[in-house]
Amino acid sequence: MLGNFLIGLREGLEATLVVVILMAYLVKSGRSHLLPKLWIGIGAAVSISIAFGALLTFGPRGLTFEAQEAIGGSLSIVAVGMVTWMVFWMARTARTLGTELHGKIDAAATGAAWGIILVGALSVGREGLETALFLWAAAQATGESTVPLLGAVLGLAVAVLLGYLLHRGVLKINLGKFFTVTGIFLILVAGGVLSYGIHDLQEAGLLPGLHNLAFDVSGAIPPDSWYGTLLKGTFNFSPATTWLEAIAWWAYVVPTLYFYLRNYRRSQAARKAAAARRATQSLPADTAPVSSRAAAPVS
Amino acid sequence: MPASPRRAFSSLAALAVVAPLALTACTDNAKPAAGATDGPISVSSTDKECTLSAVTAKSGHLTFDVKNDGQQVTEFYLLAEDGLRIVGEVENIGPGLSRKLVVTAPEGKYLTACKPGMQGEGIRAAFTVEASGTTASVDSDTKALLDTATKQYVSYVKDQTEQLLTGTKAFAAAYASGDAAKARSLYASVRMHWERIEPVAESFGDLDPSLDLREADLEKGQQWTGWHKAEKDLFPPKGYTALTAAERQKLSQKLVADTQTLFERTRTLTLTPDKLGNGAKELLDEVATGKVTGEEEIWSHTDLWDFQANVDGARIAYQNLRPVVALKKPELAKTLDQRFAALQTELDKYKVGDGFKYYIELTPDQVKQLAALVDALGEPLGQLTAAVVL
């Protein structure tokens, strides 16, 4: 029971976490109208995964191990690219919060709607096939006992619940800190997704170095413990991490964070300047500077 | 940050759709391997044990039905013999669940592993895949097998070079100090290490003539050095003037220095599968053109030692490549196995203690018989490279 519950929880968290943060992002930046787009992407990914999983479980053909790993791995890496784009898009548009401008900017970026759909689909879909196969296996076992399926479904449900609570909690963060906190969090999660994808490709033999471990703390953090599960489900932390994974994580997180924080500080400055001008001169809102070079960063 | 989100998206979207499609590879579900009497192999993984219903299977598609009968989440792996390369795995097998692993495996030795708790080495056991009529043709497997083959042959070359260097030093010391009896006794056995890896040594163009040139092949104005100059001095023909102590000294030093160079160059040796295949063929050609005629060791008559060493080198190269040959051209593998064996059987007839009969002791018929067997082996061996690299 517990084992299957934890697998469901882990897979569920991996899928929901990015989605939850993105939802909060959309709501907080006054773009709730894009939420349905996110759901369309998620729905598509879930149904494709479940159908594909059923086909592979009950159909005449299975998927080779390499292909399965390659799908999970490459989708994860594409997902990282998309999430990174989202974070920066959000950071750029955060500047227009509280002004009339953001509607115009969103309208200009029609690609963004597709972007949202894709991010949702990829965040859920990259692990979708593996999760679906696991769920179908649990469903097959119901002939003998319903406990495994119950555990798996409960785990998924708890993941969704945790996601919902997180969503509520994140919304409570004040606007000043919100973008910094969630941006950093998303970048850390995306870094984990990247190493996860690399590990999949290493297992499939498409990338080398599967056995060159940077560290192995699986003794201290067993992967089947509740805390191991949570660490894996949230930050994709793997107790036995290969060098390639570790290097990819750092190589992604450090520069991305640097550029994100730099951008963010500039937009903060621009926002403050605009707000100050509006307050003092009661200018029309749409004169707020839009260019990121409009104001010097606040130190 | 994409300057044009729309363009960035369409390309990303295309990538997201195409990547999995391009990588998708299907395999038949649970189709028992052709010729296998038993279908899927059932695996029971508990917290302490990993029990398989069979530890051998026929090559082709293998299906493992892995059931977790323990309390911990488990994983099941099929690993290559080195215990490192993953041939296939299933993860996330919760307590009470069964997951299926379908892999395509060529014949060979493997390891199975259950990992209750998803960490560590897992509970490992040996697993053998036997040849069946169906050949698995998985390119990634072939590549891995070829990598292993070249790696093994490089190790062999390094090992032989080490022994050659040690032996050459001992031979040179005895020869330079005038201990002719000891030098004569070492001559043939030390040279075997050279003859086994001759194609590799020949690939370093300058070393082969300076170490292994025969007097008959000397060109005008060329300095004669190497093994055969010492051979002539140790097994002198009638009317031969022996070298002076100083000349022997010089010849020995050069012999050791050249061998040292060969040793150093082979430390960083890299080979490709075609080099193994062509090298095996070259060694057999060496036998056909040099050893069968008795020209190589014209004074010492230790041609059979060289003969055996050339055959060894060719056989090792072939055996390293054999898993790939068996996969792609099973008929060729069978032929080569038989003909190597036939030639070895014939060679064994002339074994004397650690060594062989002198070549002049063989009758013309015996020489003819050896030549016929060499030719019979050379012909299929010529197809080896094409079989493994195409």
Which features would summarize this protein structure in a list?
heterodimer, A: 299 residues, mainly alpha, two-stranded antiparallel sheet, globular, disordered C terminus, B: 390 residues, alpha+beta, 5-stranded mixed beta sheet, 4-stranded mixed beta sheet, 12 helices, 12 strands, 17% strand, elongated, disordered N terminus
Topology overview:
The complex is a heterodimer of chains A (299) and B (390).
Chain A: H1 2-28, H2 35-58, E1 61-63, H3 65-94, H4 101-108, H5 111-140, H6 147-172, H7 175-203, E2 213-216, H8 226-235, E3 240-242, H9 243-281
Chain B: H1 5-23, E1 26-28, E2 41-45, E3 50-52, E4 56-58, E5 60-68, E6 74-80, E7 86-93, E8 98-105, E9 108-114, E10 123-130, H2 139-176, H3 180-196, H4 198-203, H5 207-212, H6 227-234, H7 245-267, H8 273-291, H9 303-328, H10 330-348, E11 351-352, E12 355-356, H11 364-381, H12 384-389
What does this structure look like?
Chain A is 75% helix and 3% strand. Chain A contains nine helices and three strands. Chain A is globular. Chain B has 390 residues and is of the alpha+beta class. Chain B is built from twelve helices and twelve strands. In chain B, the strands form three sheets. Chain B has a five-stranded mixed sheet, with no helix packed on it. The longest helix of chain B is centred in the middle third of the chain and has 38 residues, at 139-176. The interface between A and B is large, with 61 and 53 residues.
Judging from the principal axes of the Cα atoms, what is the shape of chain B?
elongated
Biggest interface in this structure?
A-B, 61 and 53 residues
Largest sheet of chain A: 2 strands, antiparallel
Characterize the main sheet of chain B: 5 strands, mixed
Q: Give the % helix of chain A.
A: over 70%
Which of globular, elongated, flat, extended, rod-shaped describes the shape of chain A? globular
Low-confidence stretches of chain B: 1-24, 30-37
